[in-house]
Amino acid sequence: MFLKVNIQIFISSIILLLVGSLLHFAYDFFNNNFIVGLFTPINESVWEHLKLAFFPILFWWIVFYWRKNKRYNLKRNKWFLGCLVSIITSIIIILGGHYFMKFGLNIHSVLIDIILFYIAIFTGQYAGYHVYNFSEFSKIDNIYFPVVAIGVIIIVFIILTISPLKLPVFEDPKTNTYGIYKK
User: Fold this and answer.
1) Structurally, how many domains does the chain consist of?
2) Of 20, 67, 158, 173, whose CB has the highest number of CB atoms within 10 Å?
3) What pLDDT is attached to residue 1?
């Protein structure tokens, strides 16, 4: 069972890495379509690149639940808590790793960012699976907490794509602009 789970986490991580990599180019491919830009990076800011992890992870956990729920009798509340943990873990690793490399070690490398992205996805998937398998979800024994938290994250991504704060995490380092309207 342990080997099967680790293979599943590895395969899902590879798929998420590939999907995230393809999404990197979606906004340009679809001629800067506003709707596409809400869910894919619109510029080279660190914030926008978090979408490369967030939306594919969310989609994977939802589709897996939808397709495999009956076969594995998945516990909905724990499943979506695992999803939330996977998302948050990945985001923290991407942000923390990027800024540690940039400011702590003065390293600016696309290759390092790609490796960091994979580490974040893999670690997030493993953490989410671990929470699903081993959490005692009796204190918040409903689906509302993870679903509301994920919904809030989606809303925050949309709002901060349209109207980002004037902080370095939101700034496109190539154009020195912010957000979808390039202010």
Assistant:
1) 1
2) 20
3) 47
